[in-house]
Write a structure and sequence with these properties.
mainly alpha, about 120 residues, about 0% strand
């Protein structure tokens, strides 16, 4: 298994930190940025089409959850099952920057901030 390391390239387009994901760490997934098979992901497509590193760079919506590509049925289920909050992740990226966010997630050894938590 890989170690969790600080790498802003391991930040998914939706704000999750692939560097803290078990599938990424066991090399069963290349991570969002490198996953060419993830052409089904509307968030990935949108970010690529608009040259965004993630949804944190989006200029179309003030609140990321106003975006139906990011805030869809499957993401809501994912958020409940994994107690994750991509909005908090994206807010942290906007406030702290990509490198600091990668540091925070590496320190926490997580792929997402807990629901409703920006830093804890």
């Amino acid at each position: 298994m890989k170690d969790i390391v600080v790498d802003s390239n391991n930040i998914a387009y939706c704000g999750l930190y692939c560097g803290g994901c078990r599938k990424f760490l066991t090399e069963k997934c290349p991570g969002c940025q490198e996953n060419e098979k993830a052409s089904w992901c509307q968030v990935r497509t949108c970010c690529g089409d608009n040259n965004f590193q993630s949804c944190a760079d989006c200029t179309f919506f003030d609140d990321p959850y106003d975006c139906k590509k990011l805030n869809n049925f499957m993401s809501k289920i994912f958020s409940v099952i994994f107690r994750s909050d991509r909005k908090s992740c994206l807010t942290c990226i906007k406030n702290e920057g990509y490198e600091k966010y990668a540091e925070i997630m590496t320190q926490k050894k997580r792929m997402s901030l807990a629901k409703g938590r920006l830093k804890n």
